[in-house]
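[Meeting: bench + compute handoff]

Bench side (C.D.) handed over the final construct sequence. Compute side (W.E.) agreed to return the predicted structure before the next meeting so the bench team could plan truncations. Sequence as handed over:
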Amino acid sequence: MSIQKEAVAGAVIKKRKRMKNPVTIPFLIMMLPGIVLLLINNYLPMLGTIMAFQQYRFRTNFFLSIANSEWVGLKNFTFLFRNPSLWINLRNTVGYNLVFILVGMVVPVAFAIAMNELWRPRLAKFYQTTLFFPYFLSWVVVSYLVFSMLQTSGAVNTMILKPLGMDIVNWYQEINFWPFLLVFLQSWKYTGYNTVIYLATISSISDEYYEAAMIDGVNKRQQIMYITIPMLRPIISILSLLAVGRIFNSDFGLFYNVPMGRSSLYPVTEVLDTFIFRAMQGATEFGMPVAASLFQSVIGFATVITANLIVRRIDPDSALF
């Protein structure tokens, strides 16, 4: 009987080997458009990193310009690092992102736990929709909503400050308020999206854990502390690692559109992305902005690799790879 089973198994394996190529070829053909699109959109533009080491001059087309531009080595990076505004923009970028990561871990988790405890499903769905709606708004729309509220004759000055007998504030000239305003707007826009992710994770936790805890006399606060939050730790770690990988990147719409391009707010609203964009706008030579972008990408890549190594040493199950 065992000999017959081995013979049948061998025949099945041989049949699968014969069918392997005919079966996989259609799938490879189906993947081909996606692979071509990936090469065009993601890998072909990487040739542009050569511009960071050239005195780029546009000629007839991009490839001809790359071939005929003068090679200057690290000259663009030297000019970049000597720019005093770079370090201010770097400070703003990293500082804001660290706050965004912290707020993005605490606030959405708190909202997800709170909505999971709601007894009325319709009320929970209403809160989810209300929180998720700002995610679909463009930063251009948000910028004009904020402007309508913060301009001199806006709602904040005329309907709140003036009736209280307080002085009218020129919000687009006062830099002290903008760090808090930008953090609030970023949290307001993305909290709903992250809350849905955490809420989905909470809903997948088996009820047996909570039932066993209730039998042992564990109250609701202890259930959250010792069951819900530990179960959320892997997804919190993954989302935090992804956010760390973008710590040198910024939400361009938030920092470019919302301040309305006011130069008076640059000390607290200018970040690496807006710095590179404005450099590209007024640049006669594109080498320095490309060098800044390449520096941003390389440092971000090194950061996420380092953070993942640290997490893998502490908790291997929470690491990305």
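W.E. noted at the follow-up: The chain has a mean pLDDT of 83. C.D. will use this when planning the next construct.
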